Amino acid sequence: MTEITIHHYLILSALLFCLGLIGVIVRKNLLVMLMCIEVMMNAINLTFVALARYFNTPDGHVMAIFVMAIAAVEAAIGLGIVIMIFRNKESIQADDYRSMKG
Amino acid sequence: MENIVLTIIFTITIGSACVVAFSRNLIYSAFALFGTFLGVAATFIMLGAPFVGLVQIVVYAGGILILTIFAVMLTAKIKASEITNPVLNIKIAIPLFLLTLFLLVYFLVNNFWSGSTALPHKEGSIVAIGNALLTEYLLPFELISIVLLITMIGAAIITRRQLK
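^ Those are the sequences you sent over. The predicted structure of the assembly is below.
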């Protein structure tokens, strides 16, 4: 068995980030897109904490806590917007909101 | 032993992230998100950051996930979600996925690592995080609290019913 190095954690976070990215691209449901953005933020947090362990400083942990606060803000506002526009059109599919297109 | 535990944790994290991204049922996506959050929290704890892992569980699994499930229950027509939740653009998405993954892994793994890639055996302490938050990062810390306050007011304003 090989030793666990920093590369394993970084590859895990790259995979998580790419899965979140592909989720945002392939889905048309606004709620699933928001969930995938949360997955991407988790991947970024993972990179911060892994590098904090590698460089042996608490800075990465502090940054991860800031990212979590911003994620909470984003979830509150994003879900508020989703619920508001659901009241207008009775749909949460992104394709139904094309009225601002040219 | 550590390898086996980490393999299980990584598998759970990646597998449930796949379910979040590709499941046709909205409820399955929401609940698989729980597995992703718990997997990442377990990874934090394995990385010697137990405080960040616990905050992850409290904030993500306890707050954001509950909020998301509330939004799913309030908006989606649950019965119809299996039909109306398609996976589109997959032909564009797969090359983009592979390209992004290749670039990320290439730059993360190949460059910048002059020394050893082994992880030092040092636990991150809560005392160090608290000291950093209240000295070096005091201004961002206060700004984040103001942002959170404004967000609460803004979320309350945009979701209320308009009085006519």
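Chain B touches chain A through 83 residues (CB under 8 Å). Residues 2-116 of chain B form a domain with the Four Helix Bundle (Hemerythrin (Met), subunit A) fold (CATH 1.20.120.1200).

Shout if you want it in another format.
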